[in-house]
Amino acid sequence: MYILANGKLITRDPALPYLADGGVAIDGANIAAVGPTASLKAQYPDAEFIDAKGGVIMPGLINAHTHIYSALARGLSISGYNAVNFLEVLEGQWWYIDRHLTLQGASASADALYMDCIKQGVTTIFDHHASFAEIPGSLQEIAASARQFGIRSCLCYEVSDRDGEEKCRQAIQENADFITYCEKNPGSMLAAMFGGHALFTISDKTFEKMTAANNGRTGFHIHVSEGMNDVYDSLRKYGRRPVQRLQDHGILGPKTILGHCIHVNTAEMEIIQETGTMCVNNPESNMGNAVGCSPVLQLMQRGITVGLGTDAYTNDMLESLKAALTIQRHNACLPNVGWREVTDMLFRNNPIIGEKYFGVPLGRLAPGAAADVIVMDYKPFTPFSGDNIDGHMLFGMTGRQCQTTICNGRLLMKDRELVGVDEEAVNAHILEESKKLWGELNHCQY
Questions:
Q1: DSSP code of 60?
Q2: What are residue 5's DSSP bridge partners?
Q3: What pLDDT, on the 0 to 100 scale, is given for residue 178?
């Protein structure tokens, strides 16, 4: 049993939102008690004490949309690549990478991303994977890494027609097999969705195969209207907008995640709302790819659950939070909008999304909730209280200030040292796999 205390406690629990000197008692995978430091010590005198050293104690962060397969691209330059539109970004970089990503490369990518998550206080991810060089078994490779590093993970595979019928068949089967595995091995640390790339790479025939293989067992995780090519393709080939196509094929529903949703119109928003479907905004990626700004304000005004992801542009959810606020204000030409919406995305809606798949209370520190807890090394030089914590996160904190990370009651990092991980050895393995990948992409040796 642990007591993590002696810090400024942010619970995200309305019953006790803030304590100037508090902490949590952790018993197994769950939080046993929340309260003042002295009270917890008195109540649990034999518990191991982890000193927050005056830092900020808060719930572990959730990333509702990321891509493990892109982890080895950090610093990569591909010879001849100079994209001028979104399709060229996909074809010249991301699809080119995943077509060369082996099982070993996928495993190394997962190791890299999970270590980065731990260091930045992210305890839960929703991943959307692609490694078309070797598809069968890729989700199990990622799951093995998730277990090793202790990060709560919902996984799926990116179905697409772009590499032919056989690769598409394998991708559908990979989703189906992993869903079956999670059904046979239930728990609160691994979950499965049914993944799809974007509608312009998925035919009606493939959608029919996807829904048949899923058979209503889980929700879908799919990119929607990230670029206008998605909209144009649907209208030209099917006479329907993307969200309407998804509705036609039974893809929508309360457990389905639509990633991006930049170019959705009001009729599509109504469909998303009526079906209870969830959306996830990825602001930095959208700006980096020059595809536009998601109408987050309008989506949330309709009561749609909009979460926050990174699309693997970063693993720092607080960095993404800042970007989400600035792009919404820039797009609206108003400096007084978006605050509530972006903080709700990260601190309210991401836990809602997570709880649907892991079945445990996430995103808050309260008795009975999952013991996903982080400590931020943040020493404020202005007044800090329960009334202005979001302001401090938006304008003061970064993920790299995380000093201690606990997920599901397991201590993953303490005082910035990973627990039970030979980081140098893992990094050396990742480096070797990245050299292999880069060499294949550029037809040279690193």
A1: P
A2: 23, 51
A3: 98
pLDDT for position 238: 96
**CA 336 to each of CA 62, 324, 341, 394: distance values in angstroms, whole numbers, following the listed order:** 26, 14, 12, 14
pLDDT recorded at residue 198 = 96
Burial track 157-174 (b if 16+ CB lie within 10 A, e otherwise): bbbbbbbeeebbebbbbb
Q: Residue 370 gets which letter from DSSP? A: B
Residue with tokens 């993307």: 242
Residue 272's Cβ-side half-sphere holds a number of Cα atoms within 13 Å equal to 28
Question: Residues of the chain whose pLDDT is less than 70?
Answer: none
Q: Using one digit for the tens of pLDDT, what is the confidence trace for 196-209?
A: 999 999 999 999 99
Which residues, 6 or more positions from 75, have their beta carbon under 8 angstroms from its beta carbon? none
Query: Other CB atoms closer than 10 Å to residue 419's CB: what's the count?
Result: 14
Q: Which residue has the tokens 């205390």?
A: 5
The bridge status of strand 373-376 relative to strand 2-10 is unpaired
What's the CA gap between 250 and 171, in Å, rounded? 19
Q: Using a CB cutoff of 8 Å and minimum separation of 24, what contacts does 272-275 make?
A: 272/243, 272/299, 272/302, 272/304, 273/302, 273/303, 273/304, 275/247
Q: Phi/psi of residue 73, each to 5°?
A: -85, -5
What's residue 362's pLDDT?
98
Q: Tell me how many degrees the CA angle 410-278-261 measures, rounded to the nearest 5.
A: 115
Would you report the helix, strand and coil content of the chain in percent, each value rounded to 5? 45, 20, 35
For residue 418, the 8-state DSSP code is E
The two three-digit tokens of residue 58, written as one number: 């808060």
CA–CA gap between residue 69 and residue 42 (Å, rounded): 47
- Give the CA radius of gyration of the chain: 21
Residue 160 Ramachandran class (φ > 0 left, ψ -120 to 50 alpha, else beta): beta
